[in-house]
Amino acid sequence: xxxxxxxxxxxxxxxxxxxxxxxxxxxxxxxxxxxxxxxxxxxxxxxxxxxxxxxxxxxxxxxxxxxxxxxxxxxxxxxxxxxxxxxxxxxxxxxxxxxxxxxxxxxxxxxxxxxxxxxxxxxxxxxxxxxxxxxxxxxxxxxxxxxxxxxxxxxxxxxxxxxxxxxxxxxxxxxxxxxxxxxxxxxxxxxxxxxxxxxxxxxxxxxxxxxxxxxxxxxxxxxxxxxxxxxxxxxxxxxxxxxxxxxxxxxxxxxxxxxxxxxxxxxxxxxxxxxxxxxxxxxxxxxxxxxxxxxxxxxxxxxxxxxxxxxxxxxxxxxxxxxxxxxxxxxxxxxxxxxxxxxxxxxxxxxxxxxxxxxxxxxxxxxxxxxxxxxxxx
Length: 378
Hints:
The protein is an alpha/beta fold. It has helices spanning about 5-15, 20-30, 35-40, 50-60, 75-80, 115-130, 140-155, 175-185, 200-210, 230-235, 255-260, 270-280, 305-320, 320-325, 330-340, 345-355, 370-375; strands at about 65-70, 85-90, 100-105, 130-135, 160, 185-190, 215-220, 240-245, 265, 330, 360, 365-370. The chain has a nine-stranded mixed β-sheet with strand order 1-2-6-5-4-3-7-8-9, sandwiched between helices. Strands 10-12-11 form a three-stranded antiparallel β-sheet. Helix 2 crosses helix 3. The chain starts with a helix and ends with a helix.
């Protein structure tokens, strides 16, 4: 697309009072963004050409691509929305925008350790099955899902994070390491202008993109007032599958999930439940993911192999990992060699230890104990 045309699109969408719906209305009414800006300039102050050029320069300097809805790289699934973002900012692997099979994982920001483990494990298994995990990089379930996805495929798993800020802004700040890892290994996208800070009204708008980029939405731990239920509702409106992880009826944090299941969402305990549904609804064969549950391997000659895998998992879990990591830390590869276990099992365990706040990673692969981990070790 010509830079001038893109600049006019930026000017139009950044003009006060112009949202996605009115953007397309003005394009239809006036024939082009240039003419729309001319007409609007008689009624109100429109975004200046200098601001649009500054936005393009900032994007170039930050390694950010700006895609208009006319760009061939713009996701087809987003184009189906009547309020599709006219402009999409992207940082990372843009090829992921054309990925066919994706699942969005959303849930509580104040998630329990168990909830984060479930989200991480399902994301890990889905990614190993070549299903792309999409989420919003919020704390809690979102972060756990992204981490689980990136641990998959020998710690090279991709994931998409849809931000409620400018794509050059990390929010929450505690996710800075996660933000940079997703940019390097997956993709960060946003419809908001560069440098735009977190705003409470941005996140519900962000949710429609999260659901549109996937074949279905999985909800893990959500209260009745959770924003995750908005994402689930949008998914239903877009004709997508909705999955929900059940929990105790006396736990308020999962009342939203139980409500979704009562209303017809698919009860989900593991990645198998999602993969089997996708295989049916999408009429496609999904490859069997690593460490699949027994129900996906019904043949008798597989039972022995499965039992060995489960024993290896048990051996890994029973090992004193914190003692091995010690006060000096250890490289992930060295830990795997030390345990003599499957890399996938060890990586899942590391994820669980991270979610429990006992272990942290630096420089991508070096493990060290947190203050909490050191306390447990003592």
